[in-house]
Amino acid sequence: MIDFEMIKSNVNLTDLIQREFPQGTIFKAGRTLRCNPSPCCGHNDCFSFASNHFHCFSCGGHGDQVDFVSRIKNLNIINAASYCANIIGVFSDSNQRKDSESFSGKLTSKQLPKTPPVISQEKRDEDCHLRDIVTDICNRELFKNKAARAYQVQERGHSLDNLERHRVGYTPGSLIDHVKSRGIDPRALIDIGLVRQVDGSLKNYFPQGVYIYPHEASGRILFFTMKDPKKKFRFQIPKRRELMNGEIIRYPDSDWICYGQDALQQDGCWLVEGENDRLSLLDAGESNVAATIGNFATPEVTAWLSQNAGGRTYFLAFDNDNAGGKYTQHYSHTILTAGGFAKIVTL
Predict the structure, then answer these.
(1) Which long-range contacts (CB under 8 A, 24 or more apart) does 180-185 make?
(2) Any idea which fold 261-344 has?
């Protein structure tokens, strides 16, 4: 049986929320704390919590640490409690919670849910360095490949200067072979989502012939997105992945928000949907442009704007379609609620 009271006493709810929902922003609101957006439903200004209890006033989610894990990870109470116990490295067999289902037997190491590791600054720096090496490889490939370069310049209308300055890349024949030629073990790229291990073999995550956009902030490469001009491949590196053994890996750096995120701090920042939208505005002479990558970075951008948009003006230039209209409505509301100013621009 599981000691629920021991878990509640030793698992800090604030730390748990930060660990399981890193894109959220936590702040003090009166006597309680809040997290935007809500880990339960994604809405803003509705999720409050104290030392060992949370309540989402939008979707009605509420409870303690175990209930929180149960809700956001879709686990039953027993497995959610085991997940929490694993965080603090203990598993007790006394004081079973009264409203829990009966449980007998011991969980094996394979059954015990795993949690995302706490990444040290040293490891984060190593991962950013690896991303920088990959960025260099792919950027060099773009400028070596005449057809790839011609597409960016002639069809997309981007300047060579901006392609170089923002280190846009093109995937080589095999990223694995390229990093090997630089004396790097390609297994190191597994942790940043660029290499997968399938049946004991290493596989490139991105296919050959797609464009790579490094997400740089304060001189560090935090993440990548890609675009396939033929629209055959429409996926991105997932932000989180659960392995077969239950371990959860987070691929972007914990500081990652979106493409061009440094611009969010500037008054007069433009918000657009995609990578090409951002580069086109930069080509047109705008200095501060951030791209949400459609809905991909919405939780992270929303959380940042909710806390930092006050007093700043943002120009919203999303696509003129149904999705673009929803983005415009969402971000204008977020910015205005935070005390900022939103101006809608049709390009």
Answers:
(1) 182/133, 182/137, 184/130, 184/133
(2) Dna Topoisomerase Vi A Subunit; Chain: A, domain 2 (3.40.1360)
Three-class SS state of 318: coil
Which CATH class, in words, describes the domain spanning 4-88? alpha beta
Q: Which of 84-93, 158-167, 187-196 has the highest mean pLDDT?
A: 158-167
Q: Which of 54-63, 112-121, 265-274, 297-306 has the lowest mean pLDDT?
A: 112-121
Give me the helices (H) in the chain, please.
Answer: 4-10, 13-20, 65-73, 77-88, 121-144, 146-150, 160-165, 175-181, 275-283, 298-308, 322-337
Nearest CA to 16 out of 60, 55, 52, 63 is that of 52
Residue written as tokens 């939008």?
58
Beta bridge partners of 215: 223
Tens of pLDDT, residue by residue over 34-64, are 999 888 878 888 899 987 889 888 777 888 9
DSSP 167-179: T-EE--S-HHHHH
